[in-house]
Amino acid sequence: MMDKKIYETGVFPTWCPGCGNFGIWNALKRAYAELELNPKNIFMVFGIGCSGNGVNFFNCYSFHALHGRTLPVATGARLANHELNVIAAGGDGDGYGIGVGHFIHSLRRNLNITYIVHNNQVYGLTTGQTSPTSSRGFKTKSTPTGVIEQPVNPIALAIDCGGTFIARGYSGDMPGLAKIFVEAIKHVGFSLVDVLQPCVTWNKVNTYAWYKDRVYKLEGAGHDFTNKDEAYKKAWEWGEKIPTGIFYKVEQPTYESELPQIAKTPLFKHDISSVNIAEILNEFY
Ligand code: SF4
């Protein structure tokens, strides 16, 4: 196991004290260390939001994308060099609201990307507005009388859209979350890890105390993650009990493996010395 300090930049996170992002940061470093990943072989893409500041806290190749655009950047990186471990990370607003179209198509495309969603059910960076996963009745600056829409269910949506690895973690259970990250990164295909991440400043409902009484592990509870129907039923369990762990997992060919141009050799290793770039560019004038 590597020393997880090699994944740190020396910049201590600026998140609010107690923010669930700390648990995710630590769990992900632990997962990288356990998998003995070389920082030079990791490419992380961050969205806009409090979680996006992680771009400054992880020592690896990284990019801070536009709002909702983590997955297009991750897709481009993976297509250009599928020898890299590509990890995309963003918030619930970034991924399930602004970027939800990319989320759906990434699931059905099945590129080998790990997507971590810091799901705190609120827009934190912009000081507390309703997000796509906010529960009905949740009061924020943008919904002072309470949310009247149904929240997005990312687990059920991911199952519907053909996801091949669908999991939920809890940032208050750092060892358990690290274990899920390890499995997600090892999965050959698109892996979603939706992480319940308390925002201690703007979400006074879904707190550590609220989760403590509700969160339980699917592992050891008789759940069969190869059974799609069972996974779908578990996806809708939310309230008194909230399951965490791997909901559904299946092996399927990745997009990279089915694209003949790059199936054998990553795009960046193609020999283009005989290609006349000027001639190609001229076609566009
Ligand atoms: Fe974390 Fe919320 Fe503070 Fe953002 S506003 S750093 S999500 S606690």
Provide a compact summary of the structure:
This protein is α/β, with parallel strands linked by helices. It contains ten helices and ten strands. The strands form two sheets. Strands 2-1-3-4-8-7-10-9 form an eight-stranded mixed beta sheet, sandwiched between helices.
Structure characterization notes:
Helices cover 30% and strands 18% of the residues. It is α/β, with parallel strands linked by helices and 285 residues long. The chain has one domain: Thiamin diphosphate (ThDP)-binding fold, Pyr/PP domains (Rossmann fold, 3-Layer(aba) Sandwich), CATH 3.40.50.970. The strands form two sheets. The chain has an eight-stranded mixed beta sheet with strand order 2-1-3-4-8-7-10-9, sandwiched between helices. The protein has a two-stranded antiparallel sheet with strand order 5-6. Helix 6 links the parallel strand 7 and strand 8. Helix 1 crosses helix 6, helix 3 packs across helix 4 and helix 5 packs antiparallel against helix 8. The chain is globular. The mean pLDDT is 97. Bound molecules: iron/sulfur cluster (SF4).
Layout of SSEs?
Blueprint: H1 21-34, E1 42-46, E2 61-64, H2 70-80, E3 85-91, H3 92-98, H4 100-109, E4 113-119, E5 122-123, E6 129-130, H5 154-160, E7 165-170, H6 174-186, E8 191-196, H7 208-212, E9 215-217, H8 228-235, E10 242-249, H9 255-258, H10 277-282
Parallel strand pairs: 1-2, 1-3, 3-4, 4-8, 7-8, 9-10
Antiparallel strand pairs: 5-6, 7-10
Iron/sulfur cluster is lined by residues 15-16, 19, 21, 50, 120, 124, 199-202.
